[in-house]
Amino acid sequence: MALTVGTAEVGSTSGSTPSLSHRLNWLRAGVLGANDGIVSTAGIVFGVAGATTDSIALLIAGFAGMVAGALSMAGGEYVSVSSQKDSELAALRRQEAELATDPEGKQRQLADHYAERGLSPELADEVARELSAHAALDAHAQVFLNLDAGTHVSPWAAARASLVAFLAGSVIPLVAIVSAPAAVRLPVTVAAVLVALVITGVVSARLGGAGTWRAVVRNVVVGTLAMGLTYAVGWVVGRQL
């Protein structure tokens, strides 16, 4: 059970399910991972397409880039989230130690916090006393660390989400450029990539509450530049071989 005071929610039960904002953050990360997969793999296959029209070479390069990118994303996410989790646990241990050595001082600190937020001194004391009696660590973690003492980020879940999202995004340009007839291979891939980028732009904007058109235009411009520049590099290198 959580007690809400002002805009802060404190005293959550340990082991509670992730909040809506937490789930939205993971979903947003998945969309961005898919977007990275689309742009990265499109850049690779367009670079190779600038140098050769060999479908096997395109498939090998695209598949290698897809696997390497997915593993890199998953590994980076695992390391990053592990570091975040270690920092959160260390901060919680410090709060727990302080609560054990000076419970009255920590209760006063909590009361002062709520008094500064506009509660009367009497009500602030009552809130701090109730929270300290039933959920002291949760209260201090949420108020002073912006953490939920019973819920922690999962490095493995983050790594899996990044891996799957990147692979899902990578499949689009790879399948398009390999399966399309050679004569229309590039325009078909461009169309597939741009449609995918429009979709991820719209979804990421909706999740973040931002303007849709700006996110879509940004996605499309970045993807187009990636494909155009890597194709140009591949074309120049291919002419030198």
Layout: helices, strands, pairs:
Blueprint: E1 3-5, E2 8-10, H1 20-51, H2 55-101, H3 103-116, H4 121-134, H5 136-145, H6 155-179, H7 185-208, H8 212-240
Antiparallel strand pairs: 1-2
Description:
The radius of gyration is 25 Å and the shape is elongated. The chain has one domain (19-235). The protein has 241 residues and is mainly α. Helix 2 (55-101) packs across helix 5 (136-145). It has a two-stranded antiparallel sheet with strand order 1-2. Residues 1-17 have low confidence and may be disordered. Helices cover 81% and strands 2% of the residues.
Helix content: over 70%
Q: Which strand order spans the largest sheet, edge to edge or round the barrel? A: 1-2
The outline comes out as: elongated
Give me the strand/helix succession: EEHHHHHHHH
Number of strands: 2
Ends distance: 69 Å
Characterize the biggest β-sheet: 2 strands, antiparallel
Give keywords.
single chain, 241 residues, mainly alpha, two-stranded antiparallel sheet
